[in-house]
Specification:
- With about 650 residues, this protein is an alpha/beta fold.
- The protein has three domains: about 5-265, 2-Layer Sandwich (Aconitase, domain 3); about 265-415, Aconitase, domain 3 (2-Layer Sandwich), CATH 3.30.499; about 465-640, Aconitase, domain 4 (Alpha-Beta Barrel).
- It is built from 23 helices and 27 strands.
- Helix 2 crosses helix 3 (about 70-85), helix 2 (about 35-50) crosses helix 5 and helix 6 (about 170-180) packs parallel to helix 7.
- The longest helix has 17 residues, at about 70-85.
- The two termini are about 40 Å apart.
- Bound molecules: alpha-methylisocitric acid (MIC) and iron/sulfur cluster.
- Alpha-methylisocitric acid binds near residues 37, 64, 378 and 535.
């Protein structure tokens, strides 16, 4: 029987398990990436493993925490640079670009496996890699030479047919898929793209699609590696890294979805979820105060050339503030050389750093209730830095249409000719901001006062007595759990950052967890569907753990966050009957008796001591994961 692409790549990296949906496989990891906001914890954990040099090809990027409004971020960067130098990790300096864009340009490799401590790591699936977002702890284990474990997914084939019409973009394709598949219910799925439409999509366009697979909640997304991919590698002067990779003609898929590219129209994800999709037509005419193009989704050379071509000789509307953040130094250098940057500047665009910036709430917060059209991938409530900011996610084309008219406008109505952007035959290659490590064991690792040791959990108690510290609804994102933006600089300081867990939902969460601790109780989080959407930030598990949370009781949990909970020794259970979610109240005292026995079963009984009833929950962990949770997390488990 023929093999699909994912199966082929996993097959050549398989270390343990069988490749059947639902069963756990251990695979060899070729490459890792980290970014600064999660890198410090990952490398502290790696250092604790005592391995002299990283066994993977690893790159440490500085792209998230570049607003240096205090010593913290600069200290973290210095820690990351020295630790990279010592342990054989390449270090991409601040200003070199956003990790996913730079990795795609300079390090991606068809047929290889990549894990990264950032949920948008699947971007590199655009060139036929198996690239997955994970927690920093999993990256540390891979760098130490350990396998990466994942639940073997179902493979969905998306057949792209035909060709996009002018002004309809790759972003509109992935927004269309988000409309169909939504952000929930896709855990344990991989999307493999195919069909005759592939030939019309360049690598940067494919990367926009794989990037936002993260918003679907899939394990990863992957494109074949074909002539288009070869042209990209040739232009990046890395054709030796390219190989052709296709699924077999008779490959089997768990589901096939057909998408007619010619039927795709300009789409928009409305506040406050990437799956709240409408067509631009449905919201056209609404006044816009801010337009931002950038982020790892849409900041490639192609994207910015479209933006510059549309703005050439025109001015941004007086009521609109427009910013552009090129995805990488390569992109910035190229638009600087060919004059497109001047077109942006002349039009009145604010040129932003080549970093995550506005996408992670570091700067550019919109005005009160401000409507902001952005080319990035997440519009969770408050993520922009303004609680009532109204963030709409659109293509760069639709961004510019609004910047010119001051209101939401279908770019097809501008009466312009669609810019024909020809991708360069040779990109601007200058890797001088990627520092090659010395691997010298005598390098002194810099540790500023912002860096604390990652706290360890204790083994799970035999009888758990806990209080429900918070009850939340469906689709709680990691931005709700552990806000980023101005709190990002505390990522390396767990005691401080822990004070902000659920801060915007209930600022009393941390104090009530401390109170539970003082009274001898653990804490429990109760949640609805799709808990932990979004970021791979392990702080969304690590900080609750630090506050004494031992159990999450939810209707369902997202993949990366679920893995992080296990890594930090928090037990995740799902309600057997959703009616029990309704019944349970904040403040209720719950108990699980004989935990060490109970956790070995697929059904775990929980007693509600306050209300005096028992209910059943499901434990969907593998036996290895159950062991980890009993030990109080992966650090304790590996140190056993
Ligand atoms: C995000 O887009 O939410 C982030 C910030 O890049 C996160 C990583 C983090 O929280 O540090 C992600 O996507 O994993
Ligand atoms: Fe950075 Fe935004 Fe991409 Fe996350 S989604 S890596 S914050 S650009």
């Amino acid at each position: 029987m023929g093999k699909n692409l994912f199966e082929k790549i996993i097959g050549t990296h398989l270390l343990s398990g069988t490749m059947e949906p639902g069963s756990e496989v251990g695979i060899r990891i070729d490459q890792t990436l980290t970014q600064d906001a999660l890198g410090t914890m990952a490398y502290l954990q790696f250092e604790a493993m005592g391995v002299p040099v990283a066994k993977t090809q690893s790159v440490s990027y500085i792209d998230h925490n570049t607003l240096q409004d205090g010593f913290e971020n600069a200290d973290d960067h210095r820690y990351l640079q020295t630790v990279a130098d010592k342990y054989g990790i390449k270090y991409s300096k601040a200003g070199n670009g956003i990790c996913h864009q730079v990795h795609l340009e300079r390090f991606s490799c068809p047929g290889a496996t990549l894990i990264g401590s950032d949920s948008h790591t699947p971007t590199c699936g655009a060139v036929g890699m198996v690239a997955m977002g994970v927690g920093g702890m999993d990256v540390a284990v891979a760098m130490a030479g350990g396998p990466f474990y994942l639940t073997y997914p179902k493979i969905v084939r998306v057949n792209l047919k035909g060709k996009l019409k002018p002004w309809c973009a790759a972003k509109d394709i992935i927004l269309e898929l988000l409309k169909t598949l939504t952000t929930k219910g896709n855990v344990g799925t991989v999307i493999e793209y195919g069909g005759d439409g592939l030939a019309t999509l360049t690598v940067p366009e494919r990367a926009t699609i794989t990037n936002m697979g993260a918003e679907l909640g899939v394990t990863t997304s992957i494109f074949p590696s074909d002539e288009m991919t070869e042209a990209f590698f040739r232009a990046q002067a890395r054709v030796e890294d390219w190989q052709e990779l296709n699924p077999d003609a008779d490959a089997k898929y768990d589901r096939v979805i057909d998408l007619d590219l010619a039927a795709i129209v300009p789409n928009v994800a409305c506040p406050h979820s990437p799956d709240n999709i409408k067509t631009i037509r449905e919201i056209e005419g609404m006044e816009v105060q801010q337009v931002l193009v950038g982020s790892c989704t849409n900041s490639s050379y192609r994207d910015l050339m479209i933006v510059a071509a549309m703005l050439k000789g025109k001015k941004v509307h007086p009521k609109v503030s427009m910013g552009v953040a090129p995805g990488s130094k390569q992109v910035l250098a190229m638009i600087a050389k060919n004059g497109a940057l001047m077109d942006l500047i002349s039009a009145g665009v604010r040129i932003l750093e080549s970093t995550c910036g506005f996408c992670v709430g570091c700067g550019q917060a919109p005005q009160t209730k401000g409507v902001s059209l952005r080319s990035n991938n997440r519009n969770f409530e408050g993520r922009s830095g303004t609680k009532d900011g109204q963030v709409y996610l659109v293509s760069p084309e639709t961004c510019v249409a609004a910047a010119l008219t001051g209101k939401v406008t279908d770019p097809r109505d501008l009466g312009m000719e669609y810019p024909n952007i020809v991708l360069p035959e040779v990109y601007e290659i200058d890797d001088s901001m990627v520092i090659v490590p010395s691997c010298d064991p005598s390098v002194e690792v810099f540790r500023g006062p912002n860096i604390g040791e990652p706290p360890k959990n204790t083994p799970m108690p035999e009888n758990l007595s806990a209080k429900v510290a918070i009850k939340v609804g469906d689709k709680i994102t990691t931005d709700h759990i552990m806000p980023a933006g101005s709190y990002l600089k505390y990522r390396s300081n767990v005691p401080k950052y822990s004070g902000y867990v659920f801060y915007h939902i209930n600022p009393e969460f941390a104090p009530s967890c401390h109170k539970n601790k003082e009274q001898g109780f653990a804490s429990i989080i109760v949640a609805g569907l799709s808990y932990g959407q979004g970021s791979s930030r392990e702080h969304a598990a690590l900080c609750p753990m630090y506050l004494g949370v031992r159990v999450l009781l939810a209707k369902s949990v997202e993949r990366i966050h679920g893995a992080n909970l296990t890594n930090f020794g928090i037990l995740q259970l799902t309600f057997a009957d959703d009616a029990d979610y309704e019944r349970i109240q904040e403040g209720d005292q719950l108990a699980i008796d004989n935990m060490h026995q109970a956790i070995k079963q697929d059904t775990v009984t929980v007693r509600n001591v306050t209300q005096g009833y028992e209910f059943e929950t499901k434990c969907n962990l593998t036996s290895r994961q159950r062991e980890i949770v009993l030990c109080g997390g992966l650090l304790n488990f590996t140190g056993k």
